[in-house]
Amino acid sequence: MITNKLVNQSIDYIMRHLDEEISIEDVADYCHFSKYYFSRVFKKETGESIYAFIKRLKMEQSALNLKIEKDKSITDIGYDYGYSPSNYSSAFKKHHNISPAEFRKSKNTTCVPHPFYQDKLAKFQSFEEYDQRILIQELDDFVVIYERYIGNYIELGKNWYDFTEKYKDYFKEDTLLIERFYDDPSITSLDQCLYDICMTVDKNCSLDNVTTIQGGKFALCRFDGLIQDIFAAFQGVFNIWLPDSGYEMDERYGLDIYRAIDWESMHVVMDLCIPIK
Predict the structure, then answer these.
(1) 92 is in which domain, residue-wise?
(2) Cα separation, 100 vs 251, whole angstroms
(3) Over residues 124-140, mean pLDDT
(4) One domain, residues 211 and 101
């Protein structure tokens, strides 16, 4: 878990400005520290230098764009993250071990390897089947207590248990449990996935780790099944539905809103929420 409040603020700053040239000095200045001191704090908390973190996020976010923005040219996606065509192709291949063109082609498929179960494939439904299940809704802002993690999503169950125990005194009848996810585990290394686990609270909550998740227009896909099958549902929405839906994902990040959880059977009902414009 990332416990340093300024490191969390710096990560938020970096993700808001990924399409710009961000320097270590920019991030340190935003947090009002010298770059040398803040670089040490950042690496201690995240396991990566600020420079490596920024570069990795640019490569991984651009890969997501290649997957879901199939009508946008590879050159333009590279430009969006500050790369010339030749530099982008070289940097992308160095990071992902595949060229941007080959990566995009590989995502036009009916299944993908399951990152959490190496002997399984995540199989997708048709666009029409997803489209029948997806609702477009405007969501209000959520005021939440949150804790941020970098690591394997497979640890979610334990992290959720610890989180709900720690904040059990803040539960009310209408409390929602929400995950905010920043990475696609089919792209990002499993031990580097960034995510927040959250619960809604009153806006006057005095805890330090309270933030507001921006609402707006979302595509909601209801999932009712075992936790191990969430990945396939998530990837189907991104690989099959979103590229042909006529919508674009905007700069906000995705949410999982839990509606019911049975931790004993690992069965959940949840809304997979993709921010769109």
Answers:
(1) 5-106
(2) 21
(3) 95
(4) no
DSSP state of 206: -
Cα separation, 93 vs 103, whole angstroms? 9
119 lies in a domain?
no
**pLDDT of res. 108:** 65
Determine, yes or no, domain membership for 122: no
Task: Output the CA angle 6-63-195, nearest 5 degrees.
Answer: 35
pLDDT for 146-176, tens place per residue?
999 999 888 888 899 999 999 999 999 999 9
- The sign of the torsion formed by the CA atoms of 93, 56, 242, 13 equals negative
Contacts of 258 (CB under 8 A, 6+ apart): 176, 177, 178, 179, 268, 269, 270
Q: What is the mean pLDDT of residues 192-200?
A: 97
Whether the CB-CB separation of 147 and 196 falls below 8 Å is answered with: yes
Tokens 């416990």, located at residue? 3
Q: What is the mean pLDDT of the chain?
A: 93
What pLDDT, in 10s, does the model give residues 17-35?
998 889 999 999 999 989 9
Count of structural domains within the chain? 2
CB 130 within 8 A of CB 232: no
